[in-house]
Amino acid sequence: MIGRLPPPWLRRLPHTLTPLHRESWDSYVSRLAKANRISHLVLHEHINDRHRVHPAPLPLLDAISHLSGHPRDRLLKALPDLRTSDLARGLPTACHLLDDGWHVQAVCTLCLAAKGVFTQARHWVPKDTRLCLRHGRWTDTYHTQFDVSLLPEIIQAQRDHRRLVREHGWQTVAVAMRQAAGWCWRCWDSRRFHKQVDRRLKILIPPGGGTYREDPRLVASGYPDIIALTALTGLPASPKLRNLPFTGRDRDFRLFISEVRARAAPGYRYEAAGVADPLVRWIEEERYYRTLPNHPFPMPNEPRTHNPDTLEDLTRRLNTILAPESDELGYCASCGTRLKDANPRMRFCSTACRSRNWRRQQHQRALRDASSRMGKRECPVCGVTWTTGTDRRNDARYCSGRCRQAAFRRRTAVEDD
Question: Measured between alpha carbons, how far is 322 from 280 in angstroms, rounded to an integer?
Fold first, then answer.
């Protein structure tokens, strides 16, 4: 008697919609519900109800096909999260299965308006997608989208991000971006090398507007610097620039620091950075990792002799290298090079390293004192703020010589009038 029952069937909705390219199925069902003036929660519950149709519930693909009136093949080509390995056999090669390199993101509202769609929608995009290159809108958020066309460096950073993913893979680039973002945000939180970020924020945030910690405009303002630093320090698949600090030649190290200044941190000084600086910690960690036998990039002209027997030995060695004051005998406490003299009282390899360590301690002490006082000062010309006594002198009134000259011209113009 069960064989005589009618096949599972759902009534087609009065108003149907054409699915967008790579749209997620829940976004399409939500748009269907809104077009038919019903709650999307009710429609989702109706589709997922096991007792909806006798004798068995319909598969999700068949249920959406019955509700929308579109055939299964059209839905499979447009909605990638409905595809399975069995269903994707008869599809074109471009209709591949989704993997971890894809995620759901909001569709650009201007792209939707060009197609006659005036409701919100979400689609599947690669993880390296942050904005719509056609209209210059930041879409990497579920909040309100905003225009970044006035900042061409953000659009160029999106192109560079895609190029890095094509060359090295999204997993490698994701790890590299995490390292570069950690270094950049620590510097910006300490109000260092923040002029470019502040300039972009002034364009993205309207006058009188505020921001918050997870504001996507903060992410967009730092996106170009993070991508630039990712291509420099983070990619193990491009060792040309990554190997510069470890060749042992001063010219290569100076070239590496100049690249850091040009890409992400204008005015960066490695000598005055301090051991807590993220870039200094990365160089020290990488210098040690390159001596391990399983590291893919050893140090040039250095044999791989160190092979720790236990995990405790490796942890002890790392803690010794990363310690602010290294007391290990035989190594300089400032640069980490091996000492020629075996004198146990000797801590530095040269007078330059001793002076560099003293300046580093003075700088860290000034940072601690300034952070405890929380002394902030604002430039009367451009509005940039800084911490007194660290970024600039205690009696500094302007952030740069350009602002000082602009204020002087204003005063002279008023006096002439």
Answer: 10
**Local structure of 274: helix, strand or coil:** coil
Which one-letter DSSP state was computed for residue 369? H
How many other C-beta atoms are found inside a 10 Å radius of the C-beta of residue 64? 22
DSSP characters over 52-118: SSSSSPPPHHHHHHHHH---HHHHHHH-GGG--TTTTTTS-TTSPPP-TTEEEEEPPHHHHHHTT--
Q: And the tokens for 80?
A: 């990638």
Gap between the Cα atoms of 417 and 229, Å rounded = 49
Q: 260's torsion region: left (phi>0), alpha (psi -120 to 50) or beta?
A: alpha
CA 83 to CA 38: how far, in whole Å? Answer: 27
pLDDT in tens, 18-58: 999 999 998 999 999 999 898 888 887 777 766 655 444 67
Cβ atoms of 333 and 325 within 8 Å: the answer is yes
Cα–Cα distance between 39 and 30 in angstroms, integer?
8
Which of the 8 DSSP states describes residue 233?
A: I
Cβ atoms 281, 322 nearer than 8 A: yes
pLDDT given for residue 370 in this prediction: 58
Cα–Cα distance between 319 and 280 in angstroms, integer?
A: 15
Domain assignments of the chain as residue spans, ordered by start: 2-126, 131-303, 375-416
Q: Using CA atoms, how far apart are residues 127 and 284, in angstroms rounded to an integer? A: 31
Question: Residue 175 is inside which H or E element, if any?
Answer: helix 170-189
Look at residues 289, 293, 318 and name the one whose alpha carbon lies nearest to residue 303: 293
Tens digit of each residue's pLDDT (9 = 90 or more) over 83-135: 888 887 777 777 778 888 899 999 999 999 999 898 889 999 998 899 999 99
What are the backbone dihedrals phi and psi of residue 106, each rounded to the nearest 5 degrees, phi first? -70, 140
pLDDT for residue 310 is more than 70: no
Q: What is the pLDDT of residues 319-359, one digit of tens each?
A: 554 454 444 456 777 776 777 666 667 778 778 788 878 87
Cis, peptide link before residue 55, omega less than 30° from 0: yes
- Nearest Cα residue to 254 out of 263, 245, 246, 241: 245
Reading the block at residue 403, the tokens are: 């602002």
